[in-house]
Amino acid sequence: MIMTKIKRVLKAGFMNFWRNGWVSLATVLIMAMTLFTIGSIIFSRALILSTLDELQNKVDISVYFKTDAAESDIFLLKDSLLKLSEVKNVEYVSRDQELKNFKERHKDNALITQSLEELGDNPLGAALNIKAKNTSQYASIAKFLEDALKMEGVGSIIDKISYRQNKIVIERLSKILDSSKKIGFAISLILIIISILVVFNTIRMAIYTSKDEIGVMRLVGASNRFISGPFVVEGLLYGVIASVITMLVFYPLTMWLGPMTESFFGNINLYDYYISNFAQIFSIILFAGVGLGVISSLIAVRRYLKA
Amino acid sequence: MIYFDKVSKIYSKEPSGVVLDDVSFAVEPSEFVSIVGQSGAGKTTLLKLLIAEDKPTKGRVFFGSVNIHSIPQDELPAIRRRIGVVFQDFRLLSNKTAYENISFAMEAAGKSNKEIDDSIPQVLELVNLMDKASHFPGQLSGGERQRVAIARAIVNQPEVVIADEPTGNLDPLNSWEIVQIFKKINELGTTVIMATHNKSVIDSLGKRVITLENGKIIRDDKKGRYVL
Fold it and tell me: What local confidence, expressed as pLDDT, does residue A165 receive?
């Protein structure tokens, strides 16, 4: 008997959806717009995070050593740096490598290459590039290095530390990172709330047109669950169809935007992101759509069941 | 089987707000009762109290042995399935066909598919609508819609059929047909309670007539006529 009931409710839900064609279509489109907003938020979040990541990776502290610094002393400093909890990694650049990079950078400048050749010797010292786990931690790493500078032995091999020049940039950047995350979150929250209200209202209107029918169903002796069931099924259908439409729209859109985002934001291609995270994005959107549809229907239909 | 015990319905404190005033009467099984009175006499309110669409201000309404206004909300659907209702404005589900309108009432009552497939042709035949089963209400005439509504009201074999001005929107010929259907239903053993102000309908019936005026019963005749 329960199976028959479920079958009847499902059938009635599908049939109402089909026969109220235009209302259903309008509701599905509005729901798709909401889900599109949610999807766009997912994509922009990926863009922002990857840009921030990229920027964060560009920030580092470099320690330049004197040309006569022994490699073993440098490695000693490297090991003690690696022991700090703030440090993500430390990259050693040897004197030869440093020279090679320098030549590469200035290969079009005849004057510099020429004077280097005249010099004969390698004028550059080795360096350590230090990356922190978080931009706000550079200050404490710099502090550690400055303390080291004062120490006997270590202090004598260090030529200079780049932090002071970068300090303002680093601090400003970490502030921007922080606030852009917060603003992004607030904007997404507002957008999501607005679109949820729009969808809820649309579904409420769709059910409002059936309010007399709900009254008739009650008089015929239908139980509340039997009356609300088909509406819930309709809400579910809105969600499923709208989320499929949304995912379909994102396919050509990201394909078109992908190369642009790659050249503009650097290391992220939206299309690749869409393809590789398809299952995850689809489940978020489907879950949001179905949840929104079902809950809105339930709330809306309950109002007309009480009276 | 139906018993109104000193029922009053008061919407507001002014004298005109009193719609039913201390009404008591009983209806026996298989009776055919017409309730007559002018517009505003309280006929519709009386029927609304009987199907628990509205609550009385004072008094009790019994269906069988239960006071239908003191039972929990979720037991009401079961009671309503024992009462078939027909309205002046038909109240069909507009996006369902005639057949589906009738089957909806059976599905709501939890009837099996086989019962539904067996019963609907029978009631459609009773109301003479075999050929219009797949039509939507919008494609039917007023008389046909009312016959669908009657088929829906009787398909669950209720103990009582309540009709509120069932002929109010129909021409004399259609009205006569509808009343014949009610007579037939009554002859098959179902109690019928019909509110109307159609004089010719009442006079042709020759059944019990309760006359309401200003919320009070002023006449209750076993073989009544329409007298006001």
Answer: 58
Q: Helix/strand/coil (H, E, C) string of B37-61? A: CCCCCCHHHHHHHHCCCCCCCEEEE
Domains in chain A, number: 2
Which of A19, A219, A223 is facing B51, going by the closest CB pair?
A: A219
Question: In this structure, are A181 and A290 located in the same domain?
Answer: yes
% chain A with pLDDT above 70? 96
* A216 to B74: CB separation less than 8 angstroms, yes or no: no
Q: What is the pTM of this model?
A: 0.73
Tell me, yes or no, whether A50 and A83 share the same domain: no
Give the integer Cα–Cα distance in Å for A234 and A225.
14
Task: Please tell me whether residues A117 and A239 are part of one structural domain.
Answer: no
Return the half-sphere exposure (C-beta side, CA atoms, 13 A cut-off) of residue B165. 19
Task: Report the range of poorest mean pLDDT among A146-155, B39-48, B53-62, B205-214.
Answer: A146-155
Nearest-CB residue to A16 (from B83, B85, B95): B95
Residue in B closest to A20 by C-alpha: B95
Under 8 Å between Cβ of B147 and B179: no
Contact B27, B50 (CB under 8 A): no
Domain identity same for A199 and A258 = yes
pLDDT of residue A307: 54
How many CA atoms does the CB half-sphere of A156 hold within 13 Å? Answer: 6
- State the count of interchain CB pairs (< 8 A) between A and B: 54
| A109's tokens | 């400048």
Looking only at the bridges linking them, the beta strands covering B208-213 and B32-36 are parallel
Measured between beta carbons, the chain B residues lying within 8 angstroms of A221 are 77-81, 83, 105, 108-109, 156
Q: Compute the Cα dihedral for A267, A273, A275, A276 and give only its sign.
A: positive
Mean pLDDT of A16-45: 89
Per-residue confidence band for A2, with pLDDT thresholds at 50, 70 and 90: confident
Which of B54, B73, B92, B93 best tests the A interface by mutation, with the highest count of A CBs <10 A? B93
What are the two backbone dihedrals, phi and then psi, of residue B191, each rounded to the nearest 5 degrees?
A: -70, 135
Q: What ipTM was reported for this prediction?
A: 0.78
* Residue range(s) defining the domain that contains residue A239: 2-55+176-306
Tokens of A201: 């209202």
> Computed over its alpha carbons, how large is the radius of gyration of chain A?
31
pLDDT in tens, A96-140: 888 888 888 887 888 877 887 777 777 788 888 888 777 777 777
CB atoms inside a 10 Å sphere around CB B131: 8
pLDDT at A167: 66
